[in-house]
């Protein structure tokens, strides 16, 4: 999520110390579950592109968290408790699970079943590797956004207790929601990378939900965050420079 805020309030101390055990366990389960569903649905581990994707996914997920432990531990604490926050808008309580479920689990489930049953026409090796580069680029962009924004929450909410400031560094110089932009690229490229075109159905639905979430969150930020409207006038694009 991409949040930026300039808010002058009395703030409470930001959390420090170790993350709750349940948070760490939940993250490990989330890491393992996606690749596990992919390979179980495929009925084989002899699938090179699935291993390439798993490597990209794990490297990005683990790498960003390890860096954040050193550079922004308070952000990890906020993400750990964001689901229970009371100020989450109703629309995001619906959209965030849809994006997570479709983008991660349904997409890889259908991709694995497609690979097992041969539903899709053959996708050339060149197209698969080109798509793999796009998937990696999408993860890199999302990781850059994650590490550039210490208010990068899992839910769309205004973190008044953490005194948000407007983030204009890193990829936020080019688009207002670079994390979502990276996710959109990787979601849509993954079916081509895996050579399982039936997975384009949940990928397209995920992309639509992500675009809707971007529009709603951007409106929330412009209406409620001091300084964000000025930032939006300087950085005109939400997801794709020069397009939207």
Short summary:
With 244 residues, the protein is an all-alpha fold.
Task: Summarize the structure in words.
The protein is mainly alpha-helical and 244 residues long. The protein has a single domain (21-234), classed as Four Helix Bundle (Hemerythrin (Met), subunit A) (Up-down Bundle). The protein is built from 8 helices and no strands. The longest helix is centred in the middle third of the chain and has 28 residues, at 90-117. Helix 1 (21-42) runs antiparallel to helix 2 (48-71). The chain has helices spanning 21-42, 48-71, 73-81, 90-117, 125-148, 178-194, 200-224, 228-234.
Compile the SSE list and pairings.
Blueprint: H1 21-42, H2 48-71, H3 73-81, H4 90-117, H5 125-148, H6 178-194, H7 200-224, H8 228-234
Helix pairs in contact: 1-2, 1-4, 2-3, 2-5, 4-7, 5-6, 6-7
Give the tags.
mainly alpha, Four Helix Bundle (Hemerythrin (Met), subunit A)
Mean pLDDT: 87
Strand portion: under 5%
The level-1 CATH class: Mainly Alpha
Structural class: mainly alpha
Low-confidence stretches: 1-15
Counted beta strands: 0
Largest sheet: none
What is the global morphology? globular
- The name of the CATH topology is Four Helix Bundle (Hemerythrin (Met), subunit A)
Number of alpha- plus pi-helical segments:
8
Helix content: 55-70%
- The CATH architecture comes to Up-down Bundle
User: What Rg is obtained from the alpha carbons, in whole angstroms?
Assistant: 18 Å
Distance between the termini: 17 Å
Q: Secondary-structure element order, as H and E?
A: HHHHHHHH
The figure for the number of domains is 1
């Amino acid at each position: 999520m991409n949040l930026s805020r300039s808010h002058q309030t009395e703030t409470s101390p930001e959390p420090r110390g170790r993350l709750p055990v349940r948070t760490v366990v939940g993250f490990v389960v989330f890491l393992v579950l996606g690749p596990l569903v992919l390979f179980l649905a495929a009925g084989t581990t002899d699938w090179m592109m699935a291993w390439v994707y798993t490597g990209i996914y794990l490297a990005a997920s683990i790498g960003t968290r390890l860096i954040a432990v050193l550079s922004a531990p308070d952000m990890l604490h906020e993400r750990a408790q964001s689901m229970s926050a009371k100020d989450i808008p109703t629309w995001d309580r619906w959209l965030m699970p849809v994006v997570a479920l479709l983008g991660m689990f349904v997409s890889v489930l259908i991709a694995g079943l497609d690979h097992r049953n041969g539903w899709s026409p053959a996708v050339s090796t060149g197209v698969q590797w080109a798509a793999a580069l796009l998937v990696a680029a999408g993860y890199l962009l999302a990781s850059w956004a994650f590490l550039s924004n210490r208010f990068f929450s899992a839910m769309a909410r205004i973190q008044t207790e953490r005194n948000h400031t407007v983030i204009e560094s890193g990829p936020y110089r080019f688009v207002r929601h670079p994390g979502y932009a990276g996710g959109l690229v990787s979601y849509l490229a993954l079916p081509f990378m895996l050579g399982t075109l039936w997975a384009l159905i949940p990928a397209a639905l995920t992309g639509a939900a992500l675009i809707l979430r971007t529009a709603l969150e951007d409106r929330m930020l412009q209406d409620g965050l001091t300084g964000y409207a000025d930032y939006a006038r300087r950085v005109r694009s939400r997801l794709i420079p020069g397009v939207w």
